[in-house]
Design a protein that fits this description.
Oligomer: single chain
Largest sheet: none
Distance between the termini: 53 Å
Number of domains: 1
Amino acid sequence: MILRVGLLFLLAGLAEIGGGWLVWGALRAGMPWWWAACGSAVLVLYGFVPCLQPINDFGRLYAGNPKPWPRTPTLARADACSPSRCMQS
């Protein structure tokens, strides 16, 4: 199972970056139109990768936040600081 999870993480990363790069290449770097079509297809397939994961926390882990929200330092600081206290000089 660990191998499958790892390979699906790798596939998700390659699909996300590769698909976006192909679309960018067609729209910004003057590559042929079919690069955008291939990139769009890769990004659609990327949308299905989480469904193949045997674990339920794929989205949170892939985003880099293994702990439940709002435990990241930035969010914890924002939650602890009300607008009236934060805006004081």
